[in-house]
Amino acid sequence: MEFFKSFFAAIIISFFLFHANATNVTHDGRSLIIDGVHRVLISGSIHYPRSTAQMWPDLIRKAKEGGLDTIETYVFWNAHEPIRRQYDFSANLDLIRFIKTIQDEGLYAVLRIGPYVCAEWNYGGFPVWLHNLPGVSFRTKNDVFMNEMQNFTTLIVDMIKNENLFASQGGPIILAQIENEFGNVMGPYGAGGKEYIQWCSNMAESLGVGVPWIMCQQQDAPKPMINTCNGFYCDEFKPNNPSSPKMWTENWTGWFKSWGGADPYRTAEDLAYSVARFYQKGGTFQNYYMYHGGTNFGRTSGGPYITTTYDYNAPLDEYGNPNQPKWGHLKQLHEVLHSMEYTLTHGDVTNTDLGNSVSTTVYSTKEKSSCFLSNAHNQTDAVVKFGGIDYYVPAWSVSILPDCKDEAYNTAKVYAQTSVLVKKPNKAEDEPNSLEWVWRPENIEKMAVQGKGDHHANRIIDQKAMANDASDYLWYMTRVELPEDDPIVAGKATLRVTDSGHVLHAYVNGEYIGSQWAQYGSQKYVFEKEVKLNPGKNLISLLSATVGLQNYGPMFDLNVTGVLSPVELVAHKGNGKVVKDLSSHKWSYKVGLDGVANKLYETDCPSKLKWSADSLPVDRNMTWYKTTFKAPLGNAPVVVDLLGLGKGHAWVNGHSLGRYWPSYIADEHTCQTAACDYRGAYSDKKCASKCGEPTQRWYHVPRSFLKDGENTLVLFEEFGGNPSGVQFQTVEIGTACVNAHEGKKVELSCHNRPISRINFASFGDPQGVCGSFKKTECESTEDAVSILEKECVGKESCSFEISEDKFGKAYCAIKRLAVEAVC
Ligand code: GAL
After folding, report:
1. Considering the entire predicted model, what is its pTM?
2. Which CB contacts under 8 angstroms, 24+ apart, belong to 17-21?
């Protein structure tokens, strides 16, 4: 008996020892509760494969400094399991290292396993081999699919458990997500879809992660799954289950970009407004999607037609720089919200509607009260009488009064600095324009001239099925035998190809006849070109290039990619037409580029293929270019300016920078012509700009891709372009501006570089915006420029309070300071 007692005591003690650091994550209908504390949590999405492992500590530190408690990430199935049962968790796919980096910074993590993730990621994160498994049917009650999904989900959960990374094990992960927004597209899946969601829930639960599971945009989420909201605003959202707290997994901080589309922009004022409204209306967890968007390296971008940059206009830009004033304006909001955590999660709530879209919310506990005054009108400012005091609340804004008296924050009043980032030439090169190039042609002879492929079929096959995502490129080749008197030979004829909307290059008898690609917003086109065919044998070779596989929509996985049926030869005879459909001819297929098979992109290219330094071709399609360069000095982020090139793929020292396409100009119709006004509901097109410019001209070259001494850039140019203008540059902060009222404490910072000059400073009633400030008659007695020169120049940052004590008397009703500092 004694033995059993001590045996059980030992087990109990070791249980507690082992779980001594365990974090207990629960919730009630109002809050997430962590170790007994009811929380107001601010989170941000950072996707590990969209940056490099070397960038993670800095990104996460900046997220923490920006006031985040939590980092949210998806898990990218197709990146981790590119070939069935062959896994990759190396370099920027090192999920465990990423989670540990979050832990090292003392932040929590939210793991959105999916494993369908959408995310503007190739095929939404599904591996293409999954599509090619016999009998599979995605996102429904289908054994083949469910087996694979469970296999991958279990693998991830086990990996995480082995490293004790769930909060229940003392790790940072407080929430896990299964599926993604299935509720948005569920209708067409019928009963199978409903059963599938129930299965997802049971499967997830069976994994015993010890933290709550969430499902986003899933109004019928089965208990105990917590249904969460995604959108630009989620203040009106209510989870389906009364014991689920109100959580917002994706607050879109801007939007993604598509080839041919404008540059998205969501104002700091509107983003802060959406967050403040959410907590005014009882939210407990809010996540910025994205907090850092980053880069779609390799062939990871989804689509079709998602750009290589995934900047997203997020609080941290593509390279990791604070996107100011957004980053700083939100940081101040987070401080205020965190200071009210107790009242927000415990207080009695009183909402009062004052009419004209103005409302107040009071959270009160015995000890303290906190208040929100909000004006949801999109044009009319309001003066709100509250507790006997008049508060000025601009249109489309929320004022936060942590003590119900003093306004600590208003979402429309931005005091954080505005940073203007500039591109600087590469000082490590003697002459930045002097990159010297060698080149060689892509070998297309076999396909365009000989029509030789590796696979054959008497039909046109979906590019996904044939290429299995091994490459963007697939050759479709067929022969046509034509008698001399065939109207196609005798008269005028055209080749007509229906395409699923990616890029097509057509060759007839070895000769290039033309290319086509989708216009912005359309997904299908018909290529039609006049051709001269010979009596006897003719060869038609079509090279299709995908630009990211579709990632969203009901049954998006089934969309056929590449060349579609029919492929036709059309003879024009008088007013009539003779059409020959080639779709059921014998077709040969060849996947990929010859240059890639020969690893031309590698620094020490192993193949014997020669590069030529002579007569560098310009505007020649299917061409490889190579140059060497020195890494820019310092540690500012590096980009390569590819203006002058058409479309293709770029590598530095063998690392893929992703697809490039600077010749794709942002469509005039995708920009907003009216001035950008933060007031009123945001949508992805609102405030978008940069039409008429290349959709993406600069491409991120992470510092960790570079080495001392000689570096190599390799380009595969598909359309034809001119590489002579290509330049490496650094992205640095050029100027920093502040424009704030008397009484505010502000900061000016050049982000790790010294402030070199004060270009403008005026305390009084200065007008204009950063870059074009102007003084007015009302100005203080002291010289603001020389005061700030003393205070700031030579330092990396300076902070001070705006007051008459500091800047001298100014005789205007409302006093402001405007400063422009040069970095
Ligand atoms: C959501 C989706 C995300 C992302 C976002 C748009 O619908 O859940 O993965 O695609 O839209 O950026």
Report:
1. 0.96
2. 19/168, 19/169, 19/170, 20/170, 21/170
